[in-house]
Amino acid sequence: MANNHRLACIMLALTSISSQDVSARTVRIVLNDWASQQVISNVYSQLLEKVGFKTKFVSLPTDGQWYYLKYNYVDVQVEVWQGNKENKLTQLIESQSIQEAGTYSIKTREDWWYPSYVTDLCPQLPDWKALNNCAKVFSEGDDPRGVYYTGPWERNDSARIRALNLNYRVISLSDDASLVKLLQKAYNQKKPILIFNWTPNWVDTQYDGEFVEFPDYAPECETNPEWGSSKQFLYDCGNPKARWVKKVTAKEFPQAMPCAFDILRSMTFSGEELAQFSLQVNVHSQSTQQVGEQWLNQNQQHWQDWLAHYSCDAYLD
Ligand code: TMO
Questions:
Q1: Is 58 exposed, middle or buried, given 0-12, 13-18 or 19+ CB atoms closer than 10 A?
Q2: How far is the CA of 11 from the centre of ligand 1 (A)?
Q3: What is the pTM of this model?
């Protein structure tokens, strides 16, 4: 009896020490530079706060985040697109330098995209071979080359332009908001525009348009110069057409904060929800915090299940 009592006391002490520890430690969430990623980060942060964690956002470009995750300077990244340095990520997961926390059931595509009305001026699209004949359609100012607008996310576009001998130049903008403004303006004026776009995204819900069909992707396209129409250069192909979106964490995270990790693993969104998140932020100018709160208010049943883990019992009574 005495022994049992002692054991119970120790267990109680352990539980309270570990729960204090864990909730005292702040969960550091990576914030990237596009809307759906920011809204999901926000939803996750609010869920953790309901359970008693503190959270903090760390703004990082996608290229810089791997270093931070690997060396445990941040804990969580809620929305990694396969198009975003997949090789680097696979390598980090396989070498157990970072931890995967699940794949959303969303199929994504990212590539060069134009509004449907451009077909009047360049009827051979979406075939990429039409691009050079239509360079003038997409040109700006005195430079005869066509312009392709993209964001701050490296996608080997200049390498592709070289490999496929395209008479085009790349203009990179600093974030998704700048791309949105540019596209909205062009669309309203029915002005030709060629832009980096992805799906799911707000564009799906508002505009008609198509991706340029480049030569089909194959892994060798990125590793073997002989592959494809250019015998000399890599990247003579388009991006793959059905890619994943994952959640990842620092490798220490699952053990350091099992409850926060379990919540992350349960968390899931549909493609439509991602498109709505970016619509509300990018087009309807709501803050990511507002959109996150609205989603939580409207989806109580959904996320309550995400909090139901043994690892979270210490926090929920
Ligand atoms: C990662 N992103 C959706 C901006 O291409």
A1: middle
A2: 46
A3: 0.89
